[in-house]
Amino acid sequence: VRGLKKYYESNQGWAKPKGIVKAVDDISFALYRGETLSLVGESGCGKSTTGKTILRLYGHTAGSIHFEGQDIGQLAYEEMRQLRREMQMVFQDPFASLNPKKTVRQILLEPLRVHGIGQASERLGMVKRFLEIVGLAEYHLDKYPHEFSGGQRQRIAIARAVILKPKLIVADEPVSALDISVQSQVINLLLQLQKELNLAYLFISHDLGVVKHISDRIAVMYLGRIVELAEAEELFAAPKHPYTQSLISAIPKRHPDEKNDRIILKGDVPSPSNPPTGCAFHPRCPMVMAICEHTSPPVMQLENGHTVRCHLYVDHPKNV
Ligand code: SF4
Ligand code: MG
């Protein structure tokens, strides 16, 4: 993904002039086969929009999206339809994403039929096998979504995504709607499937704590931009961006005697239709400098592919 932008016109009431919302603003990253890259940030930072834009569920304003060397931003509808098989999405709310009028059998047969996979006679066998893979017994086949728990519904949604044997799954807050006790079961299922099917995950979450153990790399987003990207361990061991530092400090400590050095940010996330000048984080940043108020920081490359978008890591004459 290179220089991806997704802008749209906001409609905030009849009296105000229309503004441009820069939901995704110049995002670049790579995602490798079998890897989990997490996109993390507060709600409204553009992470879901990034995921949907990459799958071309939304059009993009600028930039390019390559999938296995192919520029999918340029594909015609029919070519893209064929590629959909390789790129699937799992949503936060499995109840909303599963058709309430269809049985599990129908829900899982549909993608096979749409993509012409297998003979009609083989498809039921595939459905049963994937139901088993996600940990649901065969006798659930003729039940409807409302007859399942939230965790079971998410298993069905995951089965529907992986039955096509995709290469990429965009998982948008896949466990946020589930009870804590069920969250780890679903995450373990996703990890197991990743190993078996060599899946790449773009894992979207507002919770850095959730993605800590499942991510190979983590990208932190703020107001439409990636402000820091690093290997997961490195991000937690040595966060560079003041925003990342505050997010990590807000994760509850496991032991009560661990020092609670939480960094509290002032204010709320500003509206993406009217972002602050310079570094968009500057009104809330504990480290803000004069230059931050008027100049957007460049992306700085540190070691091990670690990147950060912050003036603290630039040798500006004003900074030294
Ligand atoms: Fe804070 Fe300035 Fe860095 Fe932005 S560029 S995060 S305001 S120090
Ligand atoms: Mg979202």
Automatic annotation (TrEMBL):
Keywords: ATP-binding, Nucleotide-binding, Transport. InterPro entries: AAA+_ATPase, ABC_transp_ATP-bind, ABC_transporter-like_ATP-bd, ABC_transporter-like_CS, Oligopep_ABC_C, P-loop_NTPase. It comes from the Bacteria. Residues 1-248 form the ABC transporter domain. Pfam families: ABC_tran, oligo_HPY. PANTHER family: D,D-DIPEPTIDE TRANSPORT ATP-BINDING PROTEIN DDPF-RELATED, TRANSPORT ATP-BINDING PROTEIN. Belongs to the ABC transporter superfamily. This is ABC transporter domain-containing protein.
